[in-house]
Amino acid sequence: MSARVAVIGGGLAGISAALACVDAGAEVTLLEASPRLGGAACSFRRGELWVDNGQHVFLRCCSAYRGLLERLGTTGATMLQPRLDIPVLMPGRRSLRLRRSGLPAPLHLGGALLRYRALAPAERLSAARCALRLRRLDPGDGALDRRSFGSWLAEQRQSARARAALWDLIALPTLNLHADDASLALAVKVFRTGLLDRTDAGDIGYATRPLAEVHAEPARRALATAGADVRDRTRVLALESGERGVTVRTDAGTVEADAAVVAVAHHQLPAIAGPRWPDVAALGVSPIVNLHVVYDRRVTRHAFAAVLDSPLQFVFDRTAAAGLRRGQYLAVSLSAADGYAQARSAELRAAFLPEIRRVFPGAARVEPIDAFVTREKEATFRAAPGSAAVRPGCRISTPRVYLAGAWTDTGWPATMEGAVRSGITAARAALIDLGHTRSLPEEVAA
Ligand SMILES: Cc1cc2nc3c(=O)[nH]c(=O)nc-3n(C[C@H](O)[C@H](O)[C@H](O)COP(=O)(O)OP(=O)(O)OC[C@H]3O[C@@H](n4cnc5c(N)ncnc54)[C@H](O)[C@@H]3O)c2cc1C
Taking 90 as the threshold, does the pLDDT of residue 231 lie above it? Predict the structure, then answer.
């Protein structure tokens, strides 16, 4: 008889776990509280528009996430730069690009850094030396997780300007914290794996269709085709587990399984956790806010850009992905958005629309036809010093229950890549422990 696995949560971790189990021949029931799959990476309709809850970006080094896209048949619904190339805009100054070359790492970034006019020449040299020192650090070193990236940058004599215009430019969207607040270990992981260790690692990718068409709907189809039972609008209330299996209690009855993969977000865990489950409250949360602005005409030719000397952070052209036929739709993506998460939409519009006009001359005299805000107050765990010690592995002291989610001990910050890795890892552990050895998902490489 095939193993019965219940997967709780239909985000990218749960989808990956469910696919891994069903592909290995297990009998899978996926239980998702909301009406749709996709979790923290999702879309909704606003009139004619498809709106993503927040801009999602991946890198070429996100091998597990890209593997999921392949499995779902949606690689073609994303773009991946042939070479890392970030336009950097500065109000009132000529824009520049952070663009890698084809040289072996870390030389591939040498030219970009030395030409990086956002910094003074001495700051560029100092940043290059700092990057080489960072490349020698081990992200798995527990001591690095006990201190902040910012304190280390200060020790490396990185100026305030270098921290804002270079290090935070990467830290903010990847760690969802400012360098000063982020764990050095996680920063090392991001900078080494995402930029410094391999020439092509940091090439940027993102969806060219709504996330619903990239993850949620294809995942539902793939799971159904493979024989999984996907139950949305089904909230799990509690799990009772013993050496012989798990009873999952939901608001629509019970599900009996040989093992359960729990793939809910860390802040959702206490609602279903048993007494011996890990306490992950100390991970905290970090918000992401997006301001969505629609114009009746094109205001910039940039597909996306980083913005310095302005609160705008990153701006993406969402026109085609959202299905807008005329005009242009820009999404301003604000990470580490503690200061904005509670603000009213009118306040955010009043603060940011003039900034867009200042940064994009094409928008200077154009009134948007729509401007609205999406707030994800619990977007990610805080990638802060000490977080590594709190993140549990997939096996916990409760028998037959396995944890997955971007917040588990993946070594990655809270990313789509981390979510997919965690799902595969938990599925593999559950199947192995059940003595299921056929068609096991491959172990995810470190
Ligand atoms: C605005 C925003 C922007 C982001 N940008 C990026 C980015 O650019 N790049 C990147 O890599 N990552 C980004 N992330 C992070 C990324 O989206 C997440 O790390 C990842 O999607 C988390 O997946 P997950 O499956 O671990 O958890 P989740 O997506 O949170 O999934 C958990 C699921 O469990 C369900 N659930 C909870 N409780 C129950 C219950 N009791 N019963 C049944 N179901 C339950 C929830 O409804 C949810 O669907 C962003 C996140 C946000 C919010």
Answer: yes
